[in-house]
Design a protein that fits this description.
Elements lengths: L2 E10 L2 E10 L5 E4 L27 H4 L4 H13 L4
Antiparallel strand pairs: 1-2, 2-3
């Protein structure tokens, strides 16, 4: 299966996020990430973010490599239905 993503950089909260816009079988998913040291607090969620998947292994690179389009749509629907904090 072919996976593809285009990476952008976006300034948020005085930091730069790496934003990956996925295509192919992962089309519809956009992930933003930032490297924080263990003692740094998490940034507040950007207003366009649907959810926080920081601690969700289903969104790790290894798991996404084998995720089908249908599985991704189900995962995204679950994340979108979770209450925001």
């Amino acid at each position: 299966m072919r996976r593809s993503a285009r990476r952008w950089h976006w300034d948020w909260g005085g930091r730069t996020l790496a934003v990956d816009v996925f295509g192919a079988t992962l089309a519809g998913m956009i992930l933003a990430e930032i490297e924080l040291s263990p003692d740094e607090p998490r940034l507040r969620r950007p207003p366009l973010a649907v959810g926080d998947v920081t601690d969700d292994d289903r969104f790790s690179g290894g798991r996404l490599a084998t995720t089908t389009s249908g599985e991704l749509q189900s995962l995204l629907a679950l994340i979108a239905a979770e209450p925001t904090s």
